């Protein structure tokens, strides 16, 4: 077990190194000369050259990559070209809304999608099953911002149940916080729900054919406990895996959802950075999101033994 | 007890007499043949395929479909509601939304098909190399793992930040983001095919590797690749609209569904129809492509169909 954990953790290092190399190359080949930007309009070529040397921009690619990685390991993600603020600070300011959105979406999606998939597998072939599967195809097909606008139009503009846009910090109270997050979370979660419901249904169909399910039925266990205690437990590994992989959808979708609902999070930061070509910020956000994604999937891998004690490493 | 049970000795001529022929309770199954029969048996392919075909025709014949110049500005007729003259209304610059939506189909379809094609070709090549060249496999798969751990929309956004917005660059950026998934699929198929007895037989006959790939491996990757390509196409259309929507995709001069929505965004609370129509077209097209993919999967790969 311990050996497996060590091996699995070590295996993420090359992956992160490739992500880092890619993200670094992004800035390296980005058009525009940071030294010229910093030097300003009145600078002479000598000034620009001096700044370039002081920033170490004249050194070879791999040397710069090395010092860049070293900076990141110390928590220094560089300085924004546009605001002159450290990227790490900008990310810290924007992280709460995005984290809130992700957590609410995750909870909402899992609590809707898993029962949906279970019921669809139980009632396989009936109209309930077909409706769930139909919803799943729809969820894959309708882009997140379309769902977002539709929800905002119906529930915020027409019915006036929830706020249209914006974000209220958690410190201002739970109710205003959640009120602002429900619509974005449903919009963002639609693809995610579709994905999880589909995998849950598929896995449950397989598990429900096992002998011990028949045994459970024969001994008179009720349907709910068969589905959720006997079967779901054994279907947990693929479901949890897809929940982890699906985080990528959430991250990508958050960029758009935050634009639709005017949430001042990391997604908005990314969009603004792209429109201004603020490469250090883009770099920092991509790096952070990828790191989180790898980390989440690492943790899920390590948790497999918890969901399925039969797995031994 | 023994009296009620027939022992072998009891079997008389009467009990073994042939049973009367069963009445015809099952009517003869009418098997439809040809294209119509195939459509009948695979309704998702029929529905999805028809809609995709209609969209392609719409994109090709856009100038003939009672459209006007989609970029023609008319400040006097800004933000008109949908009417007999302006079917989908006009946007804040007075451009006809109907014409823009019809022309916008071109960008979405071109991006979708081009990405599906490029990602398939690149993924096939990488997957084949990875499946056959042992020393390259480790390196390639680590690189793919790395690319895959950057969420694909974010990867496309990052690539778009490097270049000017153009349809070609959008295609390139989305293709790069889709390649890892396709290569993984191909690699998996190749590795499982290599264990097949007929491949072993070919090897033992002294068939050269390129011939084995061409004759035994490639034909078997076509089915899963086709299915995957439709999903890549659907996802590429969504990513294109997202890129255009946040202003990092197709340049604003070219009408694309994402662009129309991006421009309608500022007014969506008062003039929701500008966002509504491209959104409906985009969703229906992606839905049709996904249906086509599901149908193809069921028809081409019954094993996979049972699993999902």
Automatic annotation (TrEMBL), chain A:
SUPFAM superfamilies: MetI-like (SSF161098). It is found in: Cell membrane. Its main location: membrane. This is ABC transporter permease. It comes from Neoroseomonas oryzicola. Residues 95-304 form the ABC transmembrane type-1 domain. The chain crosses the membrane at residues 9-30, 99-122, 134-157, 177-197, 235-261, 281-307. Gene3D superfamilies: MetI-like. It is a multi-pass membrane protein. One of its GO terms (molecular function) is dipeptide transmembrane transporter activity. Keywords: Cell membrane, Membrane, Transmembrane, Transmembrane helix, Transport. InterPro entries: BPD_transp_1_N (IPR045621), MetI-like (IPR000515), MetI-like_sf (IPR035906). Belongs to the binding-protein-dependent transport system permease family. One of its GO terms (cellular component) is plasma membrane.
From TrEMBL, chain B:
The keyword Metal-binding does not apply. One of its GO terms (biological process) is transmembrane transport. The keyword Iron does not apply. This is ABC transporter permease. It is found in: Cell membrane. Belongs to the binding-protein-dependent transport system permease family. GO terms for cellular component: plasma membrane. It comes from Neoroseomonas oryzicola. The chain crosses the membrane at residues 45-68, 109-133, 231-254, 274-293. Keywords: Cell membrane, Membrane, Transmembrane, Transmembrane helix, Transport. Pfam families: BPD_transp_1 (PF00528), OppC_N (PF12911). Residues 109-293 form the ABC transmembrane type-1 domain. It is a multi-pass membrane protein. The lineage of its organism: Bacteria, Pseudomonadati, Pseudomonadota, Alphaproteobacteria, Acetobacterales. InterPro entries: BP-dependent_transpt_permease, MetI-like, MetI-like_sf, OppC_N.
């Amino acid at each position: 077990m311990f050996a497996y954990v060590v091996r699995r953790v070590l295996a993420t290092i090359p992956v992160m190194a490739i992500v880092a190399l890619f993200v670094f190359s992004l800035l390296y080949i980005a058009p525009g000369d940071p030294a010229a930007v910093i030097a300003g309009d009145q600078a002479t070529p000598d000034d620009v050259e001096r700044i370039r040397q002081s920033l170490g921009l004249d050194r070879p690619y791999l040397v710069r990559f090395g010092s860049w990685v070293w900076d990141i390991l110390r928590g220094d993600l560089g300085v924004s070209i546009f605001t002159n603020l450290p990227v790490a600070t900008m990310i810290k300011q924007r992280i709460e809304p995005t984290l809130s959105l992700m957590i609410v979406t995750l909870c909402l999606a899992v609590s809707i999608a898993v029962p949906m998939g279970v019921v669809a597998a139980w009632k396989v072939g009936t109209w309930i099953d077909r409706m769930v599967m139909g919803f799943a195809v729809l969820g894959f097909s309708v882009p997140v911002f379309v769902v977002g606008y539709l929800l905002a139009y119906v529930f915020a503009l027409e019915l006036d149940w929830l706020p249209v846009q914006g974000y209220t910090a958690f410190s201002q109270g739970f109710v205003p916080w959640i009120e602002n997050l429900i619509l974005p979370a449903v919009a963002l979660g639609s693809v995610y729900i579709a994905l999880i419901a589909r995998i849950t249904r598929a896995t449950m169909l397989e598990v429900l054919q096992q002998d011990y399910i028949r045994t459970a039925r024969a001994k008179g266990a009720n349907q709910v406990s068969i589905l959720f205690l006997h079967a779901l437990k054994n279907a947990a590994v693929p479901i949890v895996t897809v929940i982890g992989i699906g985080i990528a959808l959430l991250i990508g979708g958050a960029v758009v959802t935050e634009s639709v609902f005017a949430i001042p999070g990391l997604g908005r930061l990314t969009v603004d950075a792209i429109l201004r070509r603020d490469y250090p910020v883009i770099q920092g956000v991509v790096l952070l999101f990828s790191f989180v994604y790898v980390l989440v999937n690492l943790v899920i891998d390590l948790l497999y033994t918890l969901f399925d004690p039969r797995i031994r490493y | 007890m023994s009296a009620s049970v027939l022992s072998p000795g009891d079997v008389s001529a009467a009990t073994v007499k042939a049973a009367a022929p069963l009445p015809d309770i099952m009517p003869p199954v009418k098997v439809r043949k040809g294209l119509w029969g195939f459509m009948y048996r695979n309704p998702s392919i029929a529905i999805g395929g028809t809609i995709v075909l209609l969209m392609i025709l719409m994109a090709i014949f856009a100038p003939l479909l009672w459209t006007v110049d989609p970029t023609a500005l008319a400040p006097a007729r800004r933000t008109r509601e949908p009417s007999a003259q302006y079917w989908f209304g006009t946007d804040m610059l007075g451009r006809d939304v109907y014409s823009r939506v019809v022309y916008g189909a071109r960008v979405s379809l071109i991006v979708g098909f081009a990405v599906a094609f490029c990602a398939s070709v690149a993924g096939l090549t990488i997957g084949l190399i990875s499946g056959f060249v042992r020393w390259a496999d480790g390196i390639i798969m680590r690189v793919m793992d790395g690319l895959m751990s950057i969420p694909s929309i974010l990867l496309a956004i990052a690539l778009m930040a490097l270049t000017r917005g153009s349809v070609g660059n959008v295609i390139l950026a989305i293709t790069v983001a889709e390649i890892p998934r396709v290569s993984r699929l191909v690699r998996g198929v190749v590795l499982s095919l290599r264990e097949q007895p007929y491949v072993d037989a070919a090897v033992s006959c002294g068939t050269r590797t390129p011939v084995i790939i061409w004759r035994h491996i490639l034909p078997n990757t076509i089915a899963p690749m086709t299915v995957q390509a439709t999903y890549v196409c659907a996802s590429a259309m969504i990513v294109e609209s997202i890129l255009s929507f946040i202003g990092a995709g197709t340049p604003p001069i070219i009408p694309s569904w994402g662009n129309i929505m991006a421009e309608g965004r500022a007014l969506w609370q008062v003039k929701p129809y500008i966002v509504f129509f491209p959104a409906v077209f985009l969703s229906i097209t992606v839905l049709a492509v996904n249906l086509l993919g599901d149908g193809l999967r069921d028809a081409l790969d019954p094993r996979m169909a049972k699993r999902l």
